[in-house]
Amino acid sequence: MLTPGKIDVVLLCGGFGTRLKTVVHDRPKPMAEINDRPFLDILIDYVSDYGFKRFILCTGHKGDVIRKYYEAKNTQKIFLFSEEKEPLGTGGAIKNAEPLIQSNVFMVMNGDSFCNLDLCNFLNYHDSTKAYASIALAKKEKSLDCGVVRMDDHGRITAFHEKVEAGDMSYVNAGVYLFNKEVFSLLPSHKNFSLELNLFSALIQKKAVYGFFTHPQLIDIGTPERYELAKKIFKSAT
Question: What are 136's strand-pairing partners?
């Protein structure tokens, strides 16, 4: 059985946040404040409540803001930093972090979205499939332009469509993943490489990626409108 305390968590924090720049321009998107706290803090605290302790922050644009903030924290959590000198994409960021990842199974999360799924159940599901990768799936909200998926009757993902109209597909990529270290053999070094567009297509060919259904709402701060909505959702939850 997989134990959260022994699983590394990789947080993707290297994007430029172009669509959010009109309201958040002095810091990377994951550090956007939600009711006087960085969004990334809310995400990390939620994950650590399940027993995860070791966090690898993949940084790029304005990454020094993230490093300085978490280096100054007085906490039992462990923070490591995988810094990009040039944009590497989501897949490239994970490959860049490979030397820091110790656990054979590791979790990857987008640093700008939140989905209140049961992470222990997600670990157990991934362990049961023996697959290279598992993707958490949330119900699609009309306002989200997220990747949508198709699956077979066994939960194996057969197609992935990034940011298109979902049609009759009701589940979307929630930005939370579990990977076995075997995936590194599919990731080229020192290249801009998309997790969603490149790695997943390779995993689908190997029939090695499964979907894990979760019902909570997916909260994404990628646009000014969704950022304001996130503030309201988290304020009502406190």
Answer: 212
**Contact in structure between 34 and 230 (CB atoms under 8 Å):** yes
Structure tokens that stand for 68 in this block? 């300085």
Cα separation, 179 vs 235, whole angstroms? 33
Determine contact, residues 162/126, Cβ cutoff 8 Å.
no
pLDDT tens digit sequence for 166-213: 454 467 888 999 999 999 999 998 889 999 888 998 999 999 999 999
Strand pairing category for 171-180 and 133-139 = antiparallel
Q: Which residues pair with 82 in a beta bridge?
A: 58
120 exposed, middle or buried (CB, 10 Å; 0-12, 13-18, 19+)? Answer: middle
Burial of 105 (0-12, 13-18, 19+ CB in 10 A): middle
Kindly tell me the burial class for residue 202, based on how many C-beta atoms sit within 10 Å of its own C-beta (0-12, 13-18, 19 or more). middle
| Beta bridge partner(s), residue 83 | 59
